[in-house]
Structures are given as structure tokens and as C-alpha cells.
Write a structure and sequence with these properties.
Layout lengths: L3 E5 L3 H13 L3 E5 L5 H8 L3 E5 L7 H10 L8 E5 L4 H8 L3 E4 L4 H15 L1
Parallel strand pairs: 1-2, 1-3, 3-4, 4-5
Helix pairs in contact: 3-4
């Protein structure tokens, strides 16, 4: 069974790039353009990892990550926060994300970050 990744970003182009990169690496990819129903989304998809944009409607990536990490069922789900902010590390720490990547990112950076995230979760 394929490893599932749930990607949150409000930018269609970024979602398409992430989907392409991750599917090329054998992952099953699900995408969302807002994070207001993050726990409901995780309940439906049951992802092995989450990639969360920081600047996303409706509650933002930091708050959405906090909700994931506080949820009894999903607290162990690894989250990669990605952001164009220069404070990426601080935002990831505030949200409780397991890792972060700064935008713009290279395809190689995304691949390596996801592989690292998944290997540290097992």
C-alpha cells in the first residue's frame, strides 16, 4: 500500500508541483487548499505525513499543525511546514512541526525533506 501524503497549500501551482514530485516517488498524494477542517481531513485521508503551508486559509499552518499535534489520534503524524517566511524555523517550532522547508524550494529539497520526515517517523 502506498504511503499517503496530505499537502496543504492555497497555491494551485505549488500543489501541482508537490503532487508531481511526490507521485513520481511513489506516494499517494491528497491536496487541500484550506486547513480549516484539518482534523476532519486527516480522519478521511489517514496520511502517513502532512506537508503544511504556513500562509493558508482559514487558520494558517502554525495553528493547523498545533491542532494535529494536540489530537490524540494524529499527534504522531509527522508534519513538514513549508513557508516563504524567513522565520521558518521559529514558525515550525511554534506549531510543533517535525521539520520545515523554505520556499522557494528545489525539487530535490522537497524529495529529501519528505524522505527524511518519513524515515524519522518509523
Amino acid at each position: 500500500m502506498a504511503t499517503k501524503i496530505l499537502v496543504y497549500d492555497d497555491d494551485d501551482d505549488i500543489l501541482e508541483i508537490c503532487k508531481y514530485i511526490l507521485e513520481r516517488n511513489g506516494y499517494e498524494v491528497h491536496t487541500r487548499q484550506s486547513c480549516g477542517e484539518v482534523i476532519a481531513d486527516l480522519t478521511v485521508v489517514r496520511p502517513d505525513a502532512v506537508i503544511m503551508d504556513n500562509w493558508i486559509p482559514t487558520i494558517g499552518g502554525v495553528k493547523a499543525t498545533q491542532l494535529i499535534k494536540k489530537d490524540a489520534e494524529f499527534s504522531k503524524t509527522p508534519v513538514l511546514l513549508f513557508t516563504a517566511s524567513k522565520d521558518a524555523r521559529a514558525l515550525a517550532e511554534e506549531g510543533g512541526a517535525d521539520a520545515f522547508i523554505e520556499k522557494p524550494f528545489s525539487l530535490k529539497d522537497m524529495e529529501e525533506s519528505v524522505q527524511s520526515l518519513l524515515s524519522s517517523a518509523t
